[in-house]
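Hi everyone, sorry if this is the wrong subforum. Our group has a chain we'd like a structural model of before ordering constructs, and none of us has done structure prediction before. Sequence below.
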Amino acid sequence: MDFKPKFTAQVPRPAKGERVYAIGDVHGRHDLLVQLLNKVIGHYPTLKPTPSRITLLFLGDIIDRGPESRRCLALVKHLVEKAQAKLLMGNHEDMLLASLEGDGLAQEAWIRNGGLATLQSYGIDPPQSSEDAFDFAARLQERIPEDHVRFLRTLGVSYSSGSYFFAHAGVRPGVRIARQDERDLFSIRDDFTNSEKWHGQVVVHGHSIVETVDVRHNRIAIDTAAYATGRLSCLCLQDAHVSVLTT
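Answer:
Right subforum, don't worry. Here is the predicted structure as tokens:
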């Protein structure tokens, strides 16, 4: 699906010679992730010119809600380490990391927001009434592989290419891109999505669900609720080209 967005300024472009495939919130849907990656592979030779650099970029929230968080994380970790893909921090990865540190409030929020599916994928029982936050954290540390945790702790919160800025959730309107608070980048919602302000770059984000990829003058939303709808979306950007691949 190709788009011709109506931007008020010069048509935005990623960095010269770069093609970006940005993938929205996977949320444990390994089946859809594999389907979408195959679509990316098939799409690559159909778009000309051939780029000098390809960036496969995951916008965060690889885990939770869907049934195969462990497999999703393992696959994305492999792509980052072996194929130079990139994964940005999502609020769900942040909740998991805070839960591992014994943060009781984070644990409660994580469980309420799809964390039980991740526990099940790692073979971990839910929190018990007989244990406190540190006891539960100790069980998480025992069962989640150390290399998965180390990988999550290395994640950045944003990526920039030419006229485009990528973050899991968005940016704080009125604050320069260079001065954004990291937590806003992976957790902001209504203050960002309700704003028509220009942010200095077109912000590509997930986090806030849309029925189909939503292209606006100041942002592009690509979280199509894969865990519930079966639609996992990928935004392809190269030069002035903007298109969408979806399952």
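For your construct planning: The chain is about 35% helix and 15% strand. Confidence is low (pLDDT under 50) at residues 2-8.
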